[in-house]
């Protein structure tokens, strides 16, 4: 997984193939070799004790690569084609069993459906309420229930989070302009969605011209935060909190003063959880006490990966 810090997947595959294709010693390629029993014995020993073990280790590495990091081949069709070309070129009876196992692993991964996309129903799903799509402009943060909004955002964020591969965190590749889109696509999708949610909510607050309606909207966002906290959606919780901490919303002191009682207390609690003080100490303590599953906030982890 960490090879990306010093070479590309294509380069790694080329090096493995180069390691596999070890040539025989020059002395063994002479035409007179077959006439020399001693040289024939030396070639046999070379193949048995040096060549075969190395080739077997290369095939095992490729098998491990396919089994645990197949996403490299999913992203790069040329890499997959290169692997197939190499497999078909392998000769020798001893290697056929291992090559066949590698082929089976490839076929299994190719036909495999990611578990996150498998629909599972314990009963017949409810009919789709198509009327909801007739006039989407009539539905907004105030017309939809906070629980529904929190659930839908949590489903999207959970799916984005589960799609992130460990390799996307190697070598801080998401920060490198030339390679980030290729090396960390799912991580970028996840973080960009969080940022988009934060900007969207801040815009909704600021664009509300009526004071009373703005107070109601802020109150609704706090209700959404409460639902996200109950769902253990920390990514969403931090996104909503970021909207409140943005300069455009933070300056709305008269609006925020109207938030009192339980909702004001909840807003302060979330601020404490999201506080970066002492390396997100409050957030880490909260993370230890919850019952999984959860959608974590990755900002802290990305900072650790860099520093």
UniProtKB/TrEMBL annotation:
Residues 1-110 form the N-terminal Ras-GEF domain. Pfam families: RasGEF, RasGEF_N. It comes from the Eukaryota. InterPro entries: Ras-like_GEF (IPR008937), Ras-like_Gua-exchang_fac_N (IPR000651), Ras_GEF_dom_sf (IPR023578), RASGEF_cat_dom (IPR001895), RASGEF_cat_dom_sf (IPR036964). One of its GO terms (biological process) is Ras protein signal transduction. SMART domains: RasGEF, RasGEFN. GO terms for molecular function: guanyl-nucleotide exchange factor activity. GO terms for cellular component: plasma membrane. The keyword Secreted does not apply. Keywords: Guanine-nucleotide releasing factor. Transmembrane segments: none annotated. PANTHER family: GUANINE NUCLEOTIDE EXCHANGE FACTOR, PROTEIN SON OF SEVENLESS. This is Son of sevenless homolog 1. The lineage of its organism: Eukaryota, Metazoa, Porifera, Demospongiae, Heteroscleromorpha.
